[in-house]
Specification:
Radius of gyration: 34 Å
Number of helices: 3
Distance between the termini: 85 Å
Helix content: 55-70%
Order of helices and strands: HHH
Structural class: mainly alpha
Strand content: under 5%
Mean pLDDT: 80
């Protein structure tokens, strides 16, 4: 009797192929970011990390009374401006990418079905409206088509 039949569990290496392997592909929870957005996000994370490190060093230099505190403080202020730009760059790049490539038009789109229903309702309202006079001098009469029933 094997140990998994007795109620014990067998780890992946001893399962003999029947168990779960070492590397199991799991579906991603969210879709992967587009390359330009990922690039700007990595850049922003690096800039923010350097700026936070610089701010921490500035704080400790200020506590010790070092002369380097002033240049580091100016650098930390400049780094904050650059980090803000980096985060805004991620947001702008993401919005631009979504506007250019993010819209998917599918036949089952909700907006399309709503427009179709609105057109049907408007057509039914036009057909049900009393007092319409059919025209015999429309643009298609020259081609032998009449608009009257």
């Amino acid at each position: 009797m094997r140990s998994d039949e007795r109620g014990g569990s067998v780890s992946g290496a001893y399962a003999g192929g029947a168990g779960r392997g070492l590397w199991v592909e799991e579906p991603a929870r969210r879709r992967r970011m587009p390359d330009p957005v990922r690039t700007s996000a990595v850049r922003a994370v690096l800039i923010v990390a350097v700026t936070l490190t610089q701010a921490a060093i500035t704080f400790f230099l200020t506590l010790t009374g070092s002369w380097l505190a002033l240049p580091m403080a100016l650098g930390a202020i400049a780094g904050t401006v650059v980090a803000t730009w980096g985060v805004l760059d991620v947001w702008i790049t993401r919005q631009t990418w979504n506007q250019r490539y993010g819209v998917l038009s599918e036949p089952s789109s909700t907006a399309r079905s709503r427009r179709r229903e609105a057109r049907r309702a408007a057509r039914a309202a036009r057909e049900a409206a009393p007092g319409r006079i059919p025209r015999d001098d429309g643009p298609l009469t020259a081609f032998g088509h009449s608009t009257s029933p």
